[in-house]
Amino acid sequence: MFSDARTELHDFTATRFPGGQLRDDQDIFNSGYVNSLFAMELVMFIEQRLDSRIPNDELRLDNFRTVEAMLALVDRLTARTEVA
């Protein structure tokens, strides 16, 4: 996992959500504050931090729905990179 991914994800999302920090299990798509542009920003943020592309099979809403889901995605992608 990249350096302190949880903190970085919280910092990235905090500026977009009224009322401050998200809980790790909070569904950002049900919050009403997320649009398709923000979803793409999340993808780009994670790709830049990993210095790697997210494969098409991982581009599913469920992988970006919560901070926990994004951390799990980062773990999977990091493991793939380490094995390759």
Automatic annotation (TrEMBL):
* Organism domain of life: Bacteria
Q: Name one Pfam family in it.
A: PP-binding
Q: Which InterPro entries match?
A: ACP-like_sf, PP-bd_ACP
Domain Carrier, which positions?
A: 1-78
- The molecule here is called Phosphopantetheine binding protein
Q: Which organism is it from?
A: Nocardia pseudobrasiliensis
Lineage, uppermost ranks: Bacteria, Bacillati, Actinomycetota, Actinomycetes, Mycobacteriales
